[in-house]
Here is the input.
Amino acid sequence: MPVPGLPQTGEFHVEHSIAGPESSLVRYVLDIFESFKTARRPFEEAWEEAWLNYLGQYQDKTAWRSKTEGTGGRSRIFIKLTALKCNTAHAKIVDSLFANGELVPYGLVPLSTNGDPRDAAMAAEEWRKSVLDPHFSRIDLPEIISDATLELTILGTAVLKGPVLAPQRSRVVVDRGAGGVGIETGIEMVASVEHIPLWEYYVDTNAKTPAQSIGEIHFRRMLPQEFRDLAGGGGYDPAAVREAARRASNQDPSDTRYIQMADNYMGEHGVKDARVSSLEFWGLVPAAHLAEAGTLLPEGTEEEDSLEACVCLGADGIVTKAIVNPTGVRPFKVCPYKKRPHQAYGQGVAEAMRDSQKMINSIARLIIDNKALSGNGMVGVNLDRINVKRTKDLSVYPGKTWFIKGNYSPQEAIGTVGFQDVTLGLKDLLEQFERFADEETGIPKYSHGEQGSFLNKTAAGMSMLMAQANLNIKTAMRNIDNAWIEPLVEAFYDWFAGNGSGPRLPFKIKAAGTDSIIAKEIRLENLSKFITAAANPMFAPFVDQAKAIREMGRLLEIDLVRSEEEVAQILAQMQSQNGPGKSLKETVDIDRLYPYLTRAEQMQVLESLGIRPDPALPPGGPGAGGWNGDGNGDGQEHQGAGISPFGAPAGV
Here is the structure.
């Protein structure tokens, strides 16, 4: 059954002969390729420096003292701060993406329903768990995204290509009758995702987005047998593939036109000549060029039209595949770490701190050189006072015996040379550029265990550092959601729907990577405020403290909270230790409260104590006719003016 978006066999037809370098289609694609290569060279220099900084390799062209570093005993030390920052950013992104145990953080939102929306949502979730998630697990999509994310932090841009048909081994349990049950292994073509190294991907650097470029190119060099295997792929012409492989084996060994930037990291130069170049172009192609190559065009297509097509060239100019893209969607998913305005390539962590890395390396080398110079490591020898024949050599080591001429003392023949230690100022400069690296990358020191900052000593300081780090991580995760998660899930949904295994109801793909971390932070902050407010004794009886603590532990991903039964026992024990509650009379100081009550309230209090006051008499103390113990109002019940019936001075 045809698969939407994936080239099928039989769509490429060669009418007369194999299209070679003289073809207009070949010239069209190669001209675009050369223009993309020329425009990409400034970016390649930055990528190469960022990659070497991540690897921690010394670079002569980025040395501060290019003529002296690494020579004459001088240091070439490399502080691997770039690798530390990139690995930290990669770990935080991957941990945030897959923190909830999901293979890929996304959701399916039905666009329209014919019945109950809840039934549609349940059907979507069931289809996701039974079809999409198992397939993502089979092709190991989380690991592919993790590898691409590491390259994203280093180079600033990473590319995923999919869905593409790739062979995959499958193991099936079969019943062999009398022989029992056995396992057979076979090869199956599965829709998968491929992580393309950035140096194999070419696009118009002046385009605002890759989709707005005239085309996108995947250029690589393949082993001969790997290239010949393309003959069985969808849309490839077997004769053209074999001819390209034959011509590639006869190439001039001195041909270095396609030495790529990543040859030092992707393979040896000596293996290059044994490989076959493969150029895969996805983009707009004039219909006349496609017709000349023998491609079947849609009805009503005119020569002036440009169509979205896929053109593959082998051995630097043989058309091995030329088809019209039926969906018009290119398979490349390009994600920037941080976007550049109006440019397709992004900026990564390593590029953001390239100047700081260079300065930190230079300062560290100066510190080491100065320590060696100022540490009495230089020796001065007066050859006129040294018996060279008996001393034999001028090497300095413990236990060395020096033979001195005449009556000179050893101090007069051998001495040390001291220089001033200026490393104190260099250390301050080193710390300053470490702070610059923190600010440039947005990854604070707490992430890699730095304990020199006062912010790491308090909970408020740690919260400030974590919030600052999450600001940059959220931006990168939002780009991953928009450039990878949603397009990939949508492409696989279309793929399964085209095969008849997808649901009929259309869905909107909603990536949840950024939403999950933002929602988690907001809920954690609101929960902290709620617990603070619940500490008030007035609110404490109405709060489920055990549930609040468990929720706090879940959000912080710390499983140290006791079970519900244990928490209930602890609360019951605490309540029993406090004893029975006191009555209201025992907790209220009525003696101090009485003078501030109204006459009616005073009468209620007196009646509760067994005193029957006369409601016709005004309030007051003894002698004022206000009240007395026998109800006569003569003021003779208690002695002393200003004494309340409770023994305290009136008005207190």
Residues 549 and 561 are 7 Å apart (CA to CA).
